[in-house]
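Write out the 3D structure for:
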Amino acid sequence: MEDPIARKTEDLSADRYERLAQSRVSILSNCCWGGLTYHYFKLPFLSPTINLFFTDRDYIRFLENLDGMLEKEPVFDRMAYNPEEDFDYPIFDLCGVKLHMYHCRDKEQGLREWNERRARVNRSNLLVTMITESPETAERFDRLPFEKKVCFVPFRTELPSCVFADPGCIPFVSFVNSFATGTRRLYDPLVLLEEGRIEIPKDGSAQASACTDETEAAFDAAEAVLIYGAKALGTRAFNMLKPLSAGRFAGFAVTSVQGNPSEKYGFPVMSIEDWQKKYGDGEPTPDDVAVIMALFPDYYGEVRRTLQENGFRHIMTFEELEWLYYRRAKLRGGAEDRNNREDR
């Protein structure tokens, strides 16, 4: 399967992508959005705000005193627990601002990465971004003197730097982070990185895709559930399926075993053709199996055709699974929501 970035840059011209790489944009972000965007475009990390998060208050203070903050070395404060990855991560103090280095395993890694990346910041090409649910924080962000700045908010606003996105039942940070990975489409990401602005759809917002009654009923009736996909999205889909599939999860259908979640969880890994052979010779049949496409949307059409050609009719997108997971988590009081957040 071809690389989605290679295909995207071909569609938008290789020259344009090359200009983006040469522009050396430094993305400042208060959560994982910046790092996910760098990963998606395979750009060098020219920002120290990767693999960490700030509280709203601390991030605004960091931006209001950016030059001074980037000149200082943070001081180790304490360790805290990352329940999503099951390890302790370091928290540093930077002139009163707490840096939660959520994806670092020790203070040495955290300090090394901060110092290396703050030295790379390109002050002549900053893209300053934020995700907040606070109208007061959005107003403070809008007053910041940066030329390229965007703040994602879950409420309608006239603030010029703010973009409204309606997450429905999905946690807001998870919803916005999915824009950075290409899981959902809201804007042209190259326009955002180049010009610091977002081309808004006609209705002025993005909305979370709901799972239809028919798709939900087919998922609930399935005797077995497969995940078509691997790596990060496959892992996230697996974690959401645990409270939903009630022991029906069968394994992963992948085109490559590289990065397959089964290495950690121990479920079978086969091509979709081999799964078809397995279910074609007994019970359940492909008609009794639900398949989750844990992929970038660019691949949905191609993969849906492959699944249908192999007899699988009950197909759910990652976005539909996510919507279903969070809606049911909320109906049950949010326990799974808290245990499986992708908020950072």
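The chain is about 40% helix and 15% strand.
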